[in-house]
Write a structure and sequence with these properties.
The complex is a heterotrimer of chains A (277), B (310) and C (358). With 277 residues, chain A is mostly helical. Helix content of chain A is 76%, strand content 0%. The two termini of chain A are 40 Å apart. The chains are: A mainly alpha (277), B mainly alpha (310), C alpha+beta (358). Chain C: It is found in: Cell inner membrane.
């Protein structure tokens, strides 16, 4: 290896390590606080690792708080949202990718426009609409709202995945004797699986993290999702940061796991189509 | 295009139902998404806009009357609004710029093949999966000199005269949420830019290298032009999202100290949920929406010109 | 098998007209090649026959049945795509059997059909592979296999050999021709390669700018091109073309070229004295003689040996004259030769419209 090349390699690896450190340090800090015993929290606040560690916070969160309930609610809401959004975005994205029609410009325009709406402006009217339908303080209502808010971006995402699949394939299928829908289901959909995984993961993380609507549309503990539950640590237990961080770490696990596995599909899928658009 | 192509030149003898079915197909596919968007976003938007011209105060049964442009007149005189507008520009500008620059560098780094790239990529992208308010809480914690390391590092590096909490310093407070936002948002840029990078045909680089182009020249004459359309659309989407994104600020500083970190989005939040003045909040939101629309149109036009040149 | 009738077919995208009224009848079992430069509308026409493009006006019949309103799946045709369009998530066997499975054909019939097609195309050992694990030529064969297992009314080929290298293309060209001789299936083949068109076709349809220029047997098109476009498009090296003036007064019919050179032409030419014409002659018909033989004096500028023969570029009467000769070492660069255009080999075209006049 030439010296210049070696120098570049060292610089490159160092930069990658720096990025990883920057990305992971806050997560490490979260973890550190969550295992620091309360009496050391302030005394050893700046140390990289506490002199004593404990899982008390985790035990408390799992056994004595409503956190398992919040966790379950979040899981229901996020999974339902992810699946419904992906289904709707798939067929809408397919239409945008494969058909040239008069309304396309307006549909794309509308979907772009929705990305600009200040959420705060919509919350009160949404509450007013959902309330008489009995959809406030209910997971169903939350799912409906999340689906609507996530569908536009997911549709763009799915469209770019479909754009990456040659049109020839479904034409061949249609000549082979398939209806357009069959060609979509048997040829296109299996090839879009990575894209579907990416969209599922993307929407799941978004729904899992959402706070504002959850806070405004849900008032009872029964239908609270975990972001709302996390904030309840602030009031109920006089800001027990250790417990809060422990709950936070637990809440991070599903989202991070999900994302960890789908992120490469996100890159793969976008490579095929996004650039052309 | 196809729509026009379907317009027959001669007489179209196809049965009406069949023609209708063909024309309706794409609409049928997008209908579920569109209906939901209309019901949950458009209708509330229209109601929200109507609030801007009415006196809507929650829990006040006597409110709801039409006030015309009263809210907008009030806004023109509202010093906090103008400060928030300035803050929005610096919050959005710095966040997008830093996310973009670091996202682009990360994408370029990850575009090189090396052992363990898959793992490095997954780890670098992980912050995107962290709920925004949780990262806000966590960063606020890390900026606190009693329980967080950052002030001590900054003091050690000679950047801060004393290990104080920058979130409490009116001059520096805005940097707290910006740093948290950059941490959280780099992956989005890195993902989209990496995808765009990987779509650039490799032989272009080889041809340029044979022609004697330095790495920097290759970056400028091949990479940037290829990325430009993606950059334009990603920067536009991110700008719009970040301008609307109040979570981090509400959690970390709540607009303080002395309104120095109050951006329009968090100001709307304060007006709506602290003062319960939904009329005024909606009026401000309308102004923000209008500004973002103008900005997006400019970007779309810019992208159109870029694409035409390419 | 079936005949295909195309009547007054037009295609327009908005105000852009791609096909300006095409009429064509393809007989049962015939191999027809649509040839022309890219953008001439040949692929669009093929896709309209397949049902992948809407028909703006006109009528297409397959086996006597009007198919304008039929979906591709109901037209009973098979198509081989330029990209092969193999389903990446299916094995070779699954790719080939997909159409039969869609038709709910009995399992044993499917396996006989794909085994037969596989044997015919030499794919026997590859049946369980995915397309990714195949070479270009193998993929091409699978695409053909997918078409023949169905025994459709007609085969459509959309530039199926363009993605192969020259050697493989030649080989597959032969295989396609043999397959057609075996199956006797009605076939429509689109290509921009005139050699493919010449070698494969029973009949060639030469197209340009959305208009059919000439329909005929390969040798017909080669020997009697109907106009300048066909004359220039068919044949390699391309036909020599010279602008001149037709004269039939004061002597035998002739065409006056530049620098006072006059070339005698045959009788019965549909042009008036003094008409502007284009004279065409194929390089292989130009007679080159060393030294001062009969004909026009010319200087050799360039000699291109092809191994099979030699292409000579000579300058005469201010033009470049190409000649092709099987003889090696006929001339070298700088030689003075004489070139002659035999009367019965000369093509004459109307200068303005390009139509053949003799």
């Amino acid at each position: 290896m030439r010296p210049k090349r070696l120098g570049f390699t060292i610089l490159h690896r160092a930069a990658i390590l720096a990025y990883i450190a920057f990305a992971l340090f806050p997560l490490f800090w979260l973890l550190k606080v969550s295992i620091t015993p309360n009496d050391l929290l302030y005394g050893e606040g700046v140390r990289m690792w506490p002199s004593r560690s404990t899982f008390d916070h985790y035990v408390f969160v799992l056994e004595h708080s409503d956190f398992p309930l919040f966790f379950r609610n979040s899981l229901i809401v996020s999974l339902s949202t992810a699946f419904i959004v992906t289904a709707l975005a798939s067929i809408a994205g397919y239409a945008l990718s494969r058909f040239a029609f008069r309304g396309k410009f307006w549909i794309v325009g509308l979907m772009l426009l929705t990305q600009m709406f200040p959420l705060v402006m919509l919350i009160a009217p949404i509450f007013k609409i959902l309330s008489p339908l009995g959809l406030t303080n209910s997971l169903t209502g939350l799912i409906i709202v999340y689906v609507a808010f996530n569908v536009p971006f997911a549709t763009f995402l799915m469209q770019s995945f479909f754009d990456g699949i040659p049109k020839d394939l479904e034409e061949a299928a249609m000549i082979d004797g398939a209806t357009r829908f069959k060609a979509f289901r048997q040829i296109i959909l299996p090839l879009t699986l990575p894209g579907i995984a990416a969209t599922l993961g993307f929407v799941f993380t978004a729904a899992w993290s959402e706070l504002l609507f959850a806070l405004m549309l849900i008032s009872g503990v029964d239908a609270s999702t975990f972001p709302v539950g996390l904030l309840s640590f602030v009031s109920k237990f006089s800001v027990d940061f250790g417990q809060m961080m422990a709950a936070g770490v637990l809440a991070l696990i599903p989202a991070c796991l999900f994302f960890f596995f789908i992120q490469r599909y996100l890159v793969q899928g976008l490579t095929a189509g996004a650039v052309k658009g | 295009m196809t729509e026009a192509a379907r317009a027959p030149i001669g007489r179209d003898r196809r049965p009406f139902m069949r023609r209708f079915a063909i024309a309706a197909e794409p609409y049928l596919y997008s209908a579920p998404a569109l209906i939901l968007i209309a019901a949950v976003m458009l209708v509330p938007l229209v109601i929200g806009i109507s609030y801007a011209f009415r006196n809507v105060i929650l829990l006040d049964p006597f409110s709801g009357g039409f006030v015309g442009l009263e809210h907008f007149r009030e806004m023109a005189k509202d010093k906090a609004f103008w400060l928030a507008l300035r803050n929005t520009v610096s919050w959005t500008g710095w966040s997008v710029l830093l996310q973009f620059v670091f996202g682009l560098i990360l994408a370029l780094l990850l575009d090189q093949p090396f052992k363990g790239r898959g793992l490095a990529q997954a780890l670098c992208f992980l912050p995107w999966a962290v709920p925004s308010f949780l990262s806000g809480l966590n960063w606020a914690w890390m900026f606190n000199p009693v329980i967080g390391p950052i002030p001590h590092w900054l003091y050690g590096l000679g950047i801060l005269p004393a290990p104080d909490n920058i979130l409490a310093d009116p001059k520096l407070a805005m940097w707290g949420p910006i740093v948290a936002n950059v941490w959280w948002g780099i992956p989005f840029f890195a993902i989209t830019l990496l995808a765009a990078l990987q779509a650039i045909p490799r032989d272009l680089y080889e041809a340029a290298a044979i022609d004697g182009a330095t790495p920097f020249q290759r970056f400028r004459s091949i990479t940037l032009p290829f990325l430009a359309p993606t950059i334009a659309i990603t920067v536009m989407l991110r700008t719009v999202w970040i301008a609307n994104f109040a979570d981090l600020i509400v959690v970390m500083t709540n607009g303080g100290p002395a309104d120095r970190t109050q951006i329009i989005a968090s100001y709307i939040f304060t007006q709506a949920f602290r003062r319960l003045d939904f009329g005024y909040a909606s009026a401000i939101a309308m102004v923000l929406l209008a500004l973002l629309l103008v900005y997006s149109l400019l970007i779309v036009l810019l992208r159109q010109t870029l694409l035409k040149e390419a | 098998m079936a005949s295909i009738d195309i009547a007054a077919i037009r295609k327009a995208y908005g105000s852009t007209h791609v096909l300006h009224g095409v009429d064509l009848t393809i007989k049962d079992g015939e191999f027809v090649v649509l040839v022309g430069p890219s953008g001439c509308g040949k692929s669009t026409l093929l896709r309209m026959i397949a049902g992948l493009e809407d028909i703006s006006s006109g009528e297409i019949r397959i086996g006597g049945r009007r198919v304008n309103d039929l979906d591709p799946k109901d037209r009973d045709i098979a198509m081989v795509f330029q990209s092969y369009a193999l389903y990446p998530h299916m094995t070779v066997a699954e790719n080939m059997s997909y159409s039969l499975r869609l038709r709910k054909t009995a399992k044993d019939k499917i396996s006989t059909a794909i085994a037969g097609a596989g044997a015919k195309l030499g794919l026997g050992a590859l049946m369980e592979r995915r397309p990714k694990a195949l070479s270009g030529g193998q993929r091409q064969r699978v695409a053909m296999g997918r078409a023949i297992v169905r025994a459709p009314k007609a085969f459509l080929f959309d530039e199926p050999l363009s993605n192969l290298d020259a050697r493989l293309r030649e080989q597959m060209r032969g295989e396609i021709k043999k397959l057609h001789q075996d199956l006797g299936a009605t076939s429509i083949y689109v290509t921009h390669d005139q050699i493919e068109a010449m070698t494969l076709a029973d009949r060639i349809v030469a197209m340009n700018a959305g208009i059919v220029q000439q329909v005929g047997s390969p040798l017909d098109l080669y020997d009697r091109p109907a106009n300048l476009f066909v004359a220039g498009f068919m044949g390699s090296p391309a036909m020599n073309m010279f602008a001149g003036t037709y004269r039939n007064s004061g002597g035998a019919p002739r065409v006056e070229l530049a620098e006072g050179v006059a070339v005698p032409v045959g009788e019965g030419i549909a042009a008036a004295d003094g008409a502007k014409v284009t004279l065409g002659i194929r390089p292989e018909h130009v007679v080159v003689t060393r030294g001062g033989g009969p004909g026009i004096q010319a200087f050799i500028d360039l000699v291109e040996p092809t191994g099979f023969g030699t292409i000579l570029h000579a300058s005469a009467f201010g033009s470049d004259v190409k000649a092709f000769s099987l003889e090696r070492g006929l001339a070298t660069r700088g030689d003075t030769v004489s070139v002659a255009f035999p009367v019965d080999r000369i093509h004459l075209f109307d200068h303005e419209h390009g139509a053949r006049i003799g």
